[in-house]
Amino acid sequence: MALSPSELILNPDGSIYHLNLLPGDIAPTIIVVGDPDRVSQVSSKFDVIETRKQKREFQTHTGRLNGKRLTVISTGIGTDNIDIVMNELDALANIDFTTRTIRKELKQLDIIRIGTSGAVQPDIPVDSFVLSEFAIGLDGLKHFYKTEDAMESSMVKAFVAQTGWAGEKALPYAVESDKNMREELMSNRIRLGVTVTNSGFYAPQGRNLRLENSDPDMQAKLKAFNHNGMRITNMEMETSAIYLLAKLLGHRAVSMNCILANRSTGDFSENSKKAVDGLIRYVLEKITS
Ligand SMILES: O=P(O)(O)O[C@H]1O[C@H](CO)[C@@H](O)[C@H]1O
Ligand SMILES: O=c1cc[nH]c(=O)[nH]1
């Protein structure tokens, strides 16, 4: 059945509503970044840029590097934006905009987040890189989708028990990254970790400026969490939703984090742009060589 104009929303030029992209504008390998300024930091390393489009915080460049077609797109901050980006990227790949129907043959996208993050453990220094083997989502997005068995329920149970998770907050969820992509991106420069995705930057990540946190011990509980020898390495604001929607839509995803803050030691990167540039170069080399 054809999707109605209120469900699959297309702009007058036929592009998808928020991303402002046509199906031919995206490559099968997509780098997602939070900060719109990071898009040109990535695409400046391409051999050629063929498409540049933007609407709101969603900036997209598509081009080629070492013969491989790549797209880099900014998501802005937060899992609510990820809901838009992942659904619209999937629509570009897997919905026929002319008939407004889902294609019979579905395409699988490779999605790599290059993001910034705060370390939870004192031994993960600023400017280091963490690959999120698992993400624990505190953002609640999962509960709006029919998910069945795609989730890591034993990790969720352990997290709820060990943190004494308050019933009035959204139930956490946990999702694994794509194993093959993980292998493609790993090396001894990368730490593997469990990333907590929060619904905010201040109280949700245990920061207090003028307002108090409802659970002042949450940071200590995250630091102490242990599930089958795995510990929480870092916090940010998008990875759980990327992993969740990639899994549900049949895409592959992995999240690479440049650690800018260390929440245990109080350190912050002295040259965050340079540190992020190092992670961009690392990822581009790994996926195009
Ligand atoms: O640098 P990006 O990719 O935006 O990622 C991190 O930085 C933002 C907060 O400063 C959040 O989006 C967080 O996930
Ligand atoms: O502490 C941090 C640093 C970057 N991004 C976050 O979400 N948290």
Automatic annotation (TrEMBL):
Domain Nucleoside phosphorylase: 30-279
Family matches, as CDD domains: UP_TbUP-like (cd00436)
Record Pfam families: PNP_UDP_1 (PF01048)
A GO CC term assigned to this protein in UniProt: cytosol
SUPFAM superfamilies: Purine and uridine phosphorylases (SSF53167)
Main enzyme class: transferase
EC number from the UniProt entry: 2.4.2.3
GO molecular function: purine-nucleoside phosphorylase activity; uridine phosphorylase activity
Alphabetical list of InterPro entries matching this protein: Nucleoside_phosphorylase_d, Nucleoside_phosphorylase_sf
GO biological process: purine nucleoside catabolic process
Domain of life: Bacteria
Gene3D superfamilies in alphabetical order: Nucleoside phosphorylase domain
Substrates-to-products reaction catalysed: uridine + phosphate = alpha-D-ribose 1-phosphate + uracil
Protein name: Uridine phosphorylase
Organism annotation: Pelagihabitans pacificus
